[in-house]
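Risk register update: the risk of archive-format incompatibility is retired. Evidence:
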Amino acid sequence: MVKIRDFVRKYKKFTFFIGLLIIGLVFTFVGVKSALEPKVEGIEVDARIVDIHKEEGVTNADGYTEFIYTVYVDYVDNDGSAHSRVEYPIHEDDMVIGQVIKVKYNPENPSELVVNNSLIANIIFICVGASAVVVSIYMIIKTANAKDINEFNKVDMSSASNEEIEKIKNNSEETKEYYFHFAGDSNQSYILETMDREPVYEAICDKVGIVSNYKFTFINHLSGKEEEHSVSHVISSSYDSFVTSSSFKVDNVNVWDIIGKEGYSLDPHLNGFKSYFDVFHYGIKVAKIELAGTNAYKEGTSKLLGNVPIKGMFKVYSKNSDIDMVFLCAFILSKVDLF
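Archived output:
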């Protein structure tokens, strides 16, 4: 299923950027064609607006309807011939029936009004189109070469004994529900708490590195274990780039290698507001990190930090025996723009 989902995600990206490529080519073609077309030198006369026809167009998802306006004018050419109810191809919001405006007609066909695109308009069309073409080609190549999450979620199954795998399968520990919180700005802190706001695990920022890495102290309150870790500045900017090309490092080791070495892997489920990661240990589901959805967020203050305001980020479901790696996974995900 993961491979199928990755294919669908990649296919959607291909579809979007191929569509953008087509739009870019159309814009470029229209701009170049208009710039190269011989310009008709229209003859300017006064015209009176006799009708403005309003027609309903497309209604978007928010219920907003766009309207299409068609302007009709009457005018007399320089030879004295009257032309009635001629369609004028430009509509402006301040136009009203009875208003006199300047128009240009084609001297070869006086019943035809002339509107030549300006040089600036043509340049804008060409620039927008060319930019869309370049960006879409770049993203199509990038998408084609992008690795999927299966290539990062590499767990060496041979490193686990049958006894260890059976122990994971038969682990009868209670799966508990926690909240993962963020507190502070420059001195960041990440806290995993029980529903009663009792701290279970935390990562406190000891040093903010402007150029060098951040320094965090990870504290497991269940075991009393403390470890200091160096956290990279190079953090993926989005969900997709995280699961396909993350270079985020802890202690100068790519996060995927850290997770995989311990036998853990992440399976993302991105489905609107029900978005979450399943956490697997040697292929056995052991935890869940809920990124959005009902009760995923919990505001409040932290007892641990002296009633400092904190913001709830994730809802975590885990057994105590997996808490170290599950907290690390939540910490990693908290530093990625997931939405």
